[in-house]
């Protein structure tokens, strides 16, 4: 791969640190590494905000279970925006999706969108490995109706698994070029990252960004 191609891949990456044991020093190191690698952003827990960095700052909301009320998710998102978050990655209530209550899924996404207004980007984590194809399509449609900017495969913490090429392809087919698609969870090699992009991902959530960009194998998120 040429340096330019490497830089292009880096610009698709949300360099991620969401481990419960992460400390402030770890987040500062993440930010410095992201700047050196040229990633699009860092993605950190909301308790770590604000972060001083020249890259974009993303954070999570309702993470990782999604089993928070819409009001709690909205409060968390509002506080994160007030502390400088450029992007919010919110987890849906997967139980609602599996029960076919897509109107309620739309409601909670809209509650977050109402407090995380443009230019803040809103990404909706659908936990695709826990859903069937019909549910994936319906949740992506709900996210689009609610005004989301991206749909995202996974938290990386669900026992059902993380991103798959099949899910990314289905999500891209559903939202077309109207929304972004973020693949995250279990992407640990350059080959896997490039496969997700080929399947339709326009953003990647990676915790082993340096190893992946260098062609090695990472671990974790």
Automatic annotation (TrEMBL):
<dbReference type="InterPro" id="IPR028581">
    <property type="entry name" value="DeoC_typeI"/>
</dbReference>
<dbReference type="InterPro" id="IPR002915">
    <property type="entry name" value="DeoC/FbaB/LacD_aldolase"/>
</dbReference>
<comment type="function">
    <text>Catalyzes a reversible aldol reaction between acetaldehyde and D-glyceraldehyde 3-phosphate to generate 2-deoxy-D-ribose 5-phosphate.</text>
</comment>
<dbReference type="InterPro" id="IPR013785">
    <property type="entry name" value="Aldolase_TIM"/>
</dbReference>
<dbReference type="GO" id="GO:0006018">
    <property type="term" value="P:2-deoxyribose 1-phosphate catabolic process"/>
</dbReference>
<dbReference type="Pfam" id="PF01791">
    <property type="entry name" value="DeoC"/>
</dbReference>
<dbReference type="GO" id="GO:0016052">
    <property type="term" value="P:carbohydrate catabolic process"/>
</dbReference>
<feature type="active site" description="Proton donor/acceptor">
    <location>
        <position position="182"/>
    </location>
</feature>
<keyword id="KW-0963">Cytoplasm</keyword>
<dbReference type="GO" id="GO:0004139">
    <property type="term" value="F:deoxyribose-phosphate aldolase activity"/>
</dbReference>
<comment type="pathway">
    <text>Carbohydrate degradation; 2-deoxy-D-ribose 1-phosphate degradation; D-glyceraldehyde 3-phosphate and acetaldehyde from 2-deoxy-alpha-D-ribose 1-phosphate: step 2/2.</text>
</comment>
<keyword id="KW-0704">Schiff base</keyword>
<feature type="active site" description="Schiff-base intermediate with acetaldehyde">
    <location>
        <position position="152"/>
    </location>
</feature>
<feature type="active site" description="Proton donor/acceptor">
    <location>
        <position position="89"/>
    </location>
</feature>
<dbReference type="GO" id="GO:0009264">
    <property type="term" value="P:deoxyribonucleotide catabolic process"/>
</dbReference>
<comment type="similarity">
    <text>Belongs to the DeoC/FbaB aldolase family. DeoC type 1 subfamily.</text>
</comment>
<keyword id="KW-0456">Lyase</keyword>
<protein>
    <recommendedName>
        <fullName>Deoxyribose-phosphate aldolase</fullName>
        <ecNumber>4.1.2.4</ecNumber>
    </recommendedName>
</protein>
<dbReference type="GO" id="GO:0005737">
    <property type="term" value="C:cytoplasm"/>
</dbReference>
<dbReference type="InterPro" id="IPR011343">
    <property type="entry name" value="DeoC"/>
</dbReference>
